[in-house]
Amino acid sequence: MSGYLLKDCAAVVTGDQVLRDVDILIDGPAISGIGAGLAAGMPAGTEVIDARGWFVYPGLVNTHHHFFQCFVRNRVELDWTKLSVIEWLDRIYPIFARLSQDCFYHSSVTALAELAKHGCTTAFDHQYCFPRKAGKGIVDRQFEAAEKIGLRFHAGRGTNTLPKSEGSTIPDEMLETTDEFLADCERLVGAYHDPSRFSMRQIALAPCQPVNCYRETFTESLALARQHGLILHTHAGEGESEVIRARHGMRTVDYLEEMGFCGPDTFYAHGWELSETELAQLSASGTGISHCPEPVYLVGAEVTPIPAMHALGVRVGLGCDGAASNDNSNLMHCVHSAYMLQCLVASTRNHPVPAPADFLGYATSGGASLLGRPDIGKLAPGMAADLFAIDSRRMDYVGTRHDPASLIARVGIGMATDLTMVNGRIVWDGEAFPGLDEAQMAAEAEAALATIDI
């Protein structure tokens, strides 16, 4: 079999326009054509899929997550609404410190499977938790999990280097030195990083956050990333700026910019506390933001200023974030949340809410930009065959079908996709993960979870 023909799609949302009643021809990992009547010229062996009634979209790109936190979801004893931040940290980090390497693997399978079911085709995970007993093979196991599910995976190799005695929130058993962090980054780059077109595996350097790392961790990460042409990432603008000011005499954006930890190869997670002046700085440097809307419900002091970012030209992607502040791995749900949150506070903002379709753009081409991937994020000949489809012939969509580009942001999608494809391979067929036993995967993950004393 050489590929697939999605025949008679009701609509294809390419990222630039909406095409009606067209086919999508897929040859190997790439899209070779979009248009009417493509069956006549398709290669021998192409499998034809009846796509009547389907809305087809570019695959979603998740730009911030913490897969390992899937094992602390929906815990009443860890409820943010009943604990102060310090109380919560004192409870959660000892749990993270007990995670085994198998726990990291099975929590990654769990997160990746949920992402795939809901249209995500590329996932970036910020893995900053390295308990000493779990060893240095955690990211390796994540690549194993991503290969199992079939998602394109960018591993953000994080670290925490500053001890509690010097002001961090990280237990000593989860600390690394800058040198051991850099050594493992070098190992991972050699073992996994593939910068080629349609690559399924890449490495990013991602010190956890400025408040929990020495300055040298950031400067040395920056040097290594630029040497290898890697993306840089960290948490910033999520309530820590005044702590950074107290320590270093400047807020976080200035602190990171002074070091050079900014630019078109760099993006930060969150950014909800940043001023318009700071956002203008990000725009000028080309630094991006991964907006994680659902954590805003729990831990954000205010709604992230997406309209200002949009108006200033800041590159924006979307992320689920981890279960410390979002109990699901459903990026499609985040598209809806992101739009609705901005509508909630629209009357208090100086800039209009971007159009609903722009929020889909953040989760597709916006995410591709943050990850430095010009080969994903849109549907067009020559682009990766990363896509998902929903059957619009359900009662859920009556009255909505005139505007497929706005559907996800305005209406929301309350179920799994009817198809998710990555690099021309079907990873979710609407009912199952082809070649995998979902019940068995869930049972294995539950067994790993049971080994932790929570």
Structural class: alpha/beta
Portion of residues within helices: 25-40%
- This entry's quaternary arrangement is single chain
Strand content: 15-25%
- Quick check: average pLDDT? 95
Question: What's the architecture of the largest domain in CATH terms?
Answer: Alpha-Beta Barrel
Shape: globular
Q: What is the CATH class designation of the largest domain?
A: Alpha Beta
Report how far the terminal alpha carbons are from each other: 48 Å
Q: What is the string of SSEs from the N terminus onward?
A: EEEEEEHHEHEHEHEHHEHEHHEHHEHEEH
Can you walk through the features of this model?
By secondary structure, the protein is α/β, with parallel strands linked by helices. It has two domains: 3-58 and 376-431, Urease, subunit C, domain 1 (Roll); 60-370, Alpha-Beta Barrel (TIM Barrel). Helices cover 35% and strands 20% of the residues. The protein is built from 14 helices and 16 strands. The chain has helices at residues 85-96, 101-117, 138-149, 178-192, 215-228, 241-248, 252-259, 276-285, 293-298, 306-312, 331-344, 356-370, 404-410, 438-449; strands at residues 3-13, 18-27, 30-35, 47-50, 54-58, 60-62, 120-127, 152-159, 201-207, 231-236, 266-270, 288-291, 316-318, 387-391, 419-422, 425-428. Strands 1, 2, 3, 4, 5, 14, 15 and 16 form an eight-stranded mixed beta sheet that branches. Strands 6-7-8-9-10-11-12-13 form an eight-stranded parallel beta sheet. Strand 2 (18-27) and strand 3 form a beta hairpin. Helix 2 (101-117) packs parallel to helix 3 (138-149). It starts with a strand and ends in a 5-residue tail after the last helix. InterPro entries: Amidohydro-rel, Metal-dep_hydrolase_composite, Metal_Hydrolase, MTA/SAH_deaminase. It comes from Paracoccus aestuariivivens. This is Amidohydrolase family protein.
